[in-house]
Amino acid sequence: MHLVAALDLLSTFVFALVGARVAADRRMDYGGIILIATIAAVAGGTLRNLFLLQRPIWMTNPTFFLSIILAVIITIILKTTKPIGKYLLILDTFGLAFATVSGTQFSLTHGASKYAAAILGMITAVTGGLLRDILCQVEPVLLHRETIGTSALLGSIMYVLLALTTMSTIYIAIVAGATVFAVRGLSIYFDLNLPKIIN
Predict the structure, then answer these.
(1) Exposure string (b/e) for 42-79, b if CB count within 10 Å is 16 or more?
(2) What are the tens digits of pLDDT across the range 35-67?
(3) Is the dihedral of CA 39, 42, 45, 47 positive or negative?
(4) pLDDT in tens, 22-33
(5) How does DSSP classify residue 82?
(6) How far apart are CA 66 and CA 63, in angstroms?
(7) Is the CB of residue 152 less than 8 Å from the CB of residue 130?
(8) Could you say which DSSP state residue 59 is in?
């Protein structure tokens, strides 16, 4: 459970930082930046826990809000509204990997079946970014490029499969997280996307 908490906290900060930058790019005021950062950071884990009939972690651990506040402060101090560059994309990919691993492990340890844990791992990773883009009125990245959902699902499936072996949890988390990072990284670098219907 310590690993889940640590990864949840890391993904919370990263998703909050990216969410705050997207909101700043959309010229939102401080209130809007805080709202978008918060939703981007906690929505995935909250939805996961609700499906598992568990209280969201942020309800009992205020550290998560401190990480969101820190991300917002960094965004405000930098005072930049430039579109997200490659460094924030890398950070966002790390957040995706952290959230996928924590979501899958949390689900497995709270009674979810193997296939449900894989799906919940993906939901944990992608929900915040999807809501962030919808609220910021930009085309959701999840639905049209970079195979975000695919990379998260493959990472969560990898975690579930390795959990059936005798490999330690730390190594399982590393391999599953690396899978997420590699798939999304390659899709960005080579501009790969899932097929689309073209008239």
Answers:
(1) bbbbbbbbebbebebbbeeeeebeebbeebbeebeeee
(2) 999 999 999 999 999 999 999 988 988 899 999
(3) negative
(4) 999 999 999 999
(5) P
(6) 5
(7) no
(8) G
Percent of residues, the chain, with pLDDT higher than 70: 95
- Four-CA torsion 194, 144, 187, 155, nearest 10 degrees: -80
Burial class of residue 183 (count of CB atoms within 10 Å of its CB; 0-12, 13-18, 19+): buried
Helical H runs in the chain? 2-25, 30-51, 63-78, 86-109, 114-135, 141-144, 148-162, 169-189
DSSP 26: T
| Closest alpha carbon to 52 in 101, 117, 99 | 117
- C-alpha 103/C-alpha 97 separation (Å) is 10
Q: Answer whether 0.85 is exceeded by the pTM.
A: yes
Report domain extents, the chain. Answer: 2-189
Tokens linked to 52: 């598992």
Q: What is the mean pLDDT of residues 56-84?
A: 86
